[in-house]
Amino acid sequence: MAWNQPGGNGNRDPWGNRGGQQGPPDLEEVLKKLQAGLGRLFGGGGGSGGGGRRSPGLPQFGFGKGLGLVLAAAIIGYGVWGFYIVDLPEQGVVLRFGKFVGLSEPGPHWIARPIYSVEKVNVEQVHKAEIGFRSAGGTSSSVAHESLMLTKDENIIDIKFAVLYRVREPDKYLFNVLDPDETLRQATETAVREVVGRSQMDYVLTEGRSEVAAEVETLIQSILEIYGAGFLVTSVNMQDAQPPREVQDAFDDAVKAREDEERFKNEARAYAADIIPKARGDGNAIREQTRAYKQRVIAAAEGETDRFLQVLEQYRKAPDVTRERLYIEAMESVIANSSKVLIDVEGGNNLMYLPIDKLVERETSTGLRRNPDEYRQAGEASGSSFGQEFSQGQEDLRGRARQ
To answer: How far apart are CA 342 and CA 313, in angstroms?
Structure first.
């Protein structure tokens, strides 16, 4: 029997409960409360005050509209939440449930959050690692446990390095190493100690600075590749390299002595560069003079030989004449170099004296040349036997030439 059937229901509700007993909640009231709550959420009306019951369709229409708005807002918010922008010097590391799946280049992108997430890494920024010192506020302080190193010749050296690097592989930078920057610092210190440990102290402090820095850069990059840190070392600079402070004075003296040695060597090279060309020039001149003397002597010898052969040919044709001519020429060459001549006349007791220098001076002053007869006549006129003796001397000379 229906609960509102005529004849009464025994003071019972539709669920069989009598008055004063609690039954299930009214569905209409529940919908009204839900509609009121959504109205307050989205700024609508829907008060709970009485005024008669509303039809069951009205609350259903308001609830569907509010639910659609909620869904639309949720979809829009989810779409906006998934957008992200990668700046120009950055790269995005895309993760799916925390696992690397790819890289995103600069620009706008969208991912399905929270399934996917993005980590942004600046790949253009240059970082700096300092080994052996720390710089801050324009000043630098030494770090002894990093800068003091042992060389191959068992000397201690105080050396400082600065390493410039940037991120090359963002995914390795984020996930392969726990602390990438500290890893690079330790790799740099290891590389520097290895390179310095197989080098001589003088080599590191003087001419080997650039070579040591290049070796350190190569070794650091190889260590980082093994670790998979994702770094690219752009440059390694040796800031300073000195012996320990305790032996600095002695080292300065050694450096000064080495500089003096180089200076003396340079001076010696300059002197050699000046004197050697002169000596070579003098040597070449002496060689040329020797060659000229050799050629002159050879030519003179050849000329003498030719003249002797010609004289020999004439001697074979006329021995007496040639003998006399040779004798006269020989006497002329001997007497020409003497200013006085003494002649021993055969059969006489006196020596004949010929003052050739006086005769030459007389001929030079008068400009005339006298023959032997004139000398003889001049001697007879003066009462002297000079002319006669001179003529006799000439006859003796001819006789000797004939013999």
So the answer is: 34
The DSSP letter of residue 53 is P
Closest by Cα among 360, 319, 356 to 341: 356
Show Cβ contacts of residue 125 under 8 Å, excluding neighbours closer than 6 positions.
89, 166, 167
| CA separation for the pair 242, 204 (Å, rounded) | 9
| Residuewise pLDDT in 10s, the chain (403 residues) | 444 444 444 555 554 555 444 545 565 676 666 666 656 655 554 444 444 444 444 444 455 667 778 888 888 888 788 888 898 899 999 999 989 999 999 989 888 888 899 999 999 999 999 988 888 877 888 888 888 898 998 888 889 999 999 999 999 999 998 899 999 999 999 999 999 999 998 888 888 889 999 999 999 999 999 999 999 999 999 988 888 877 778 877 887 898 899 999 999 999 999 999 999 999 999 999 999 999 999 999 999 999 889 888 888 888 888 888 888 888 888 777 776 666 666 666 666 666 666 666 666 666 555 555 555 555 444 444 444 555 555 555 555 545 5
User: Distance from first CA to last CA of the chain, Å, rounded?
Assistant: 203
CA atoms of 334 and 397, how far apart (whole Å): 14
Burial category of 78 from C-beta neighbours within 10 Å (exposed 0-12, middle 13-18, buried 19 and up): exposed
Q: How far apart are CA 227 and CA 173, in angstroms?
A: 10
Please count the CA atoms within 13 angstroms of the CA of 179 that sit on its side-chain side. Answer: 5
Helix axes 248-317, 319-335, angle to 10 degrees: 140
Q: Which residues are within 8 A (CB) of 94 and not within 5 positions of it... i.e. 6 or more apart? A: 100, 101, 102, 103, 104, 111, 116, 117, 118
Give CA separation, 399 vs 321, 323, 334, in Å.
Answer: 12, 11, 18
DSSP-assigned beta bridge partners for residue 18: 12
Q: Are 386 and 379 in contact (CB under 8 A)?
A: yes
Q: How many CB atoms lie within 10 A of CB 165?
A: 24
